[in-house]
């Protein structure tokens, strides 16, 4: 029976990736080893995030050195965990983290051919109120077997080999694409394994939800203002869209991916490049959206075509259901013409 098969034929994320990679005869398992270290980092952060409240509640912080680590801000702790896990994988050569001003160049003895860009705990300002937060990551292959330089991570998002996020919420869900569609895995704490729960995720072609911080409306440009207005007062007589905005990118994007709709962090007069970071927020989420049949646009171009020049560069982003993003592309194209 299917149910039994599910129970006894556990499709863990490691097995899933191994299956996918064996389709490449030349692959030597390096990518699978790299991913297994990212998964390890996510498992650690999941437990740390879940216990953070408890540590505070029980006043554990400060009593013994075990809890001392909880005094360290969770995002700093998460960053250290991911850096250590990625370096120890022996498969990376450059790491870019939202937490570190400079890129990490892995020592030659432990160097591999992959570059990982990541935000270890995106939305961490939401931890204290229990809102879902997450890790976002993208993986590049270094340009060629030479001395690693920043050029190996300043590649357009379309060059990414894989991207994903892990959301720490009511459950711990890891959503991943290695360029052949999008799959979601949920952590089974009793097994300590991520199990395939959302095979082949496809975003609805059109959605009924728009997701933006309306508090910035005063500073939006014309096309964004017109688009949001059309969500609230549709000219074609259709019903208005619902507004859902959590303020944690992983949570807002995960809902958009599963339910459809559009997520926007536009440019505004105060921040001409918007707020979200290209390498480890915009690119990974845009990669996933395209792989799920949606699209991602910066207001000027396809998000994945953008070529970053700095590792912490920002870009405006409109991503989600194909037809919804198409609407905002038309408005920016019309403005170009005027
Ligand atoms: P705002 C969280 O701080 C974050 O980086 C993203 O996770 C989130 O989408 C965005 O900022 C929220 O920004 O300006 O709406 O609070």
TrEMBL record:
CDD domains: FBPase (cd00354). Its EC number is 3.1.3.11. It holds the Pfam family FBPase. It catalyses: beta-D-fructose 1,6-bisphosphate + H2O = beta-D-fructose 6-phosphate + phosphate. Residues 11-199 form the Fructose-1-6-bisphosphatase class I N-terminal domain. Residues 203-332 form the Fructose-1-6-bisphosphatase class 1 C-terminal domain. One of its GO terms (cellular component) is cytosol. It is found in: Cytoplasm. HAMAP family: FBPase_class1. Belongs to the FBPase class 1 family. This is Fructose-1,6-bisphosphatase, cytosolic. It comes from Capsicum annuum (Capsicum pepper).
């Amino acid at each position: 029976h299917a149910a039994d098969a599910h129970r006894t034929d556990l499709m863990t994320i490691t097995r899933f990736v191994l299956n996918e990679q064996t389709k490449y005869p030349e692959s030597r398992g390096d990518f699978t080893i790299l991913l297994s270290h990212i998964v390890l980092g996510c498992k650690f952060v999941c437990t740390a995030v879940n216990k953070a409240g408890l540590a505070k509640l029980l006043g554990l912080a400060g009593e013994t050195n075990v809890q001392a680590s909880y005094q360290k801000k969770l995002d700093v702790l998460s960053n250290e965990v991911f850096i250590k896990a990625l370096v120890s994988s022996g498969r990376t050569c450059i790491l870019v983290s939202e937490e570190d001003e400079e890129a990490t160049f892995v020592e030659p003895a432990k160097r591999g051919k992959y570059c990982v860009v990541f935000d270890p705990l995106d939305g961490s300002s939401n931890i204290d109120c229990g809102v879902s937060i997450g890790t976002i990551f993208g993986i590049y292959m270094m340009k060629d077997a030479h001395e690693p330089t920043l050029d190996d991570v300043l590649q357009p998002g379309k060059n990414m080999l894989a991207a994903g996020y892990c959301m720490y919420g009511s459950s711990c869900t890891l959503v991943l694409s290695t360029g052949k569609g999008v799959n979601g895995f949920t952590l089974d704490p009793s097994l300590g394994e991520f199990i395939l729960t959302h095979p082949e995720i496809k975003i609805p072609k059109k959605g009924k939800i728009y997701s933006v911080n309306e508090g910035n409306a005063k500073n939006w440009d014309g096309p964004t203002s017109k688009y949001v207005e059309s969500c609230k007062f549709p000219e074609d007589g259709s019903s208005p869209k619902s507004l859902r905005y959590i303020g944690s990118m992983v949570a807002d994007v995960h809902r958009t991916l599963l339910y459809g709709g559009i997520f926007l962090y536009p440019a505004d007069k105060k921040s001409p490049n918007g707020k979200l970071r290209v390498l480890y927020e915009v690119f990974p989420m845009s990669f996933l959206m395209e792989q799920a049949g949606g699209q991602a646009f910066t207001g000027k171009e396809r998000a994945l075509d953008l070529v970053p020049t700095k590792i912490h560069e920002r870009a405006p982003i409109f991503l989600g259901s194909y037809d919804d993003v198409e609407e905002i592309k038309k408005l920016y194209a019309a403005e170009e013409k005027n």
